[in-house]
Design goal:
Its EC number is 2.7.13.3. With about 375 residues, this protein is of the alpha+beta class. The chain has nine helices and twelve strands. The longest helix is centred in the middle third of the chain and has 67 residues. The radius of gyration is 40 Å and the shape is rod-shaped.
């Protein structure tokens, strides 16, 4: 049954097939080649003389047979078959004869079919090149869009800081002319303006660090001081509908990190929490907690910073992409989608971990864990 199947495969192949002896005697020829030659199935085909035109037979004997006798393979030789009615059929020949074997195997494809095949290959290649060009153009467009989003986000960040600066300077100016305002209040307003200016500079340093063009300098830092130093600036930006509270651990262990980056991270998380609360449309609460975490066999001692809000929360698909660069659910110009990715990347570079616990309508909890500094 297996031999019969192989016979049908040979006889019904789309290309012309034959085997012959080293002397040119035909041993086997398939139905496709018989059809091309106009030879009925019951007729005998005895030698290559019955298959090839005289010129092609001479070419085969003088050029191709010596190569085959040496065990070489013939690929893509153009020859002409001799039809029974005297016409010629140009074909492309592939042939081989294993060394020591008395038999040669030949496969042929009609030239016009080969030309169609090659034309198809050329078209496929052209289509592939066009597709690659389109992909490259699309990738370039996406990069430019990402750069545009980043620029819009940076502008938004600076606008927020400038608003704080202008607001506090305005308060200070009013205080100068207001006899009821105390000197201490004016100093606090000016200090807030100065802090916002420092934050703007910190954003520039953060972007430079993100692109690898800024040397990050670490120091021993207490996260409680990071929270305290950020308090006034953050509270100023929260508004009346958002309440801020802190739960800071006593005797908190220090961490080894750049303080300005930690302040930027905390501010970013708190402002994100504020936006989530406002999106829910009702007053809400932001809680910032610090604590020590005793080490285990797998991890050493660490310090935890937790930022929780009662905001809108994240559905599963948003939470899964929250750390992706340039991913944002905010309108264009209101966020560049780098905030959480910068948080994740910075904390990871410091040897820490960042996790998100959130669900739609249930608020969000972001936990940052940093290794305890050894002093």
């Amino acid at each position: 049954m297996h031999d019969e199947s192989m016979h049908h495969d040979f006889d019904d192949a789309a290309c012309g097939l034959l085997t012959c002896s080293s002397s040119g005697q035909i041993l086997r020829i398939n139905g496709t080649l018989r059809h091309w030659l106009g030879i009925p199935g019951e007729s005998t085909v005895s030698s290559l003389f019955d298959v090839l035109t005289p010129a092609s037979l001479l070419f085969f004997e003088m050029q191709l047979r010596p190569l085959l006798a040496l065990g070489r393979t013939v690929d893509g030789a153009f020859i002409n078959l001799r039809h029974r009615d005297g016409s010629q059929l140009p074909v492309v020949l592939n042939a081989s004869q294993p060394q020591g074997s008395p038999r040669m195997a030949m496969a042929m494809i009609v030239v016009r079919e080969r030309e169609q095949y090659e034309a198809s290959l050329r078209q496929s290649r052209a289509d592939a090149e066009a597709a690659l060009a389109a992909m490259a153009a699309s990738a370039h467009g996406q990069k430019m869009q990402a750069v545009g989003q980043m620029a819009a986000g940076v502008a938004h960040e600076f606008n927020n800081l400038l608003a704080v600066i202008r607001g506090n300077i305005s308060f200070a100016q009013q205080g100068v002319t207001d006899a009821l305002s105390s000197e201490q209040r004016i100093l606090e307003d000016l200090e807030s303006a100065m802090t916002a200016t420092d934050r703007a500079s910190a954003i520039v340093r953060q972007l430079l660090a993100f692109t690898g063009r800024q040397v990050v300098r670490r120091s021993v830092v207490n996260l409680n001081s990071v929270v305290d130093d950020s308090r006034h600036l953050v509270v100023t930006a929260l508004g009346r509908d958002v309440t801020w509270q802190t739960r800071l651990a006593h005797d908190l262990w220090p961490v080894f990190a750049p303080k300005d980056q930690l302040q930027h991270i905390l501010t970013n998380l708190v402002l994100n929490a504020r936006d989530a609360i406002r999106a829910r449309g009702e007053p809400g609460l932001i809680t910032v907690t610090t604590s020590n975490v005793n080490g285990t066999n797998d991890h050493g001692d660490s310090v935890r910073l937790l930022v929780e809000d009662t905001g809108l929360g994240m559905p599963d698909d948003v939470r899964a992409r929250a750390f992706d660069p340039f991913f944002t659910t905010k309108p264009v110009g209101q966020g560049m989608g780098l905030g959480l990715s910068m948080v994740y990347g910075t904390i990871d570079a410091l040897g820490g971990r960042t996790t998100i616990d959130s669900s739609a309508g249930q608020g969000t909890r972001i936990t940052i864990t940093l290794p305890r500094a050894t002093t």
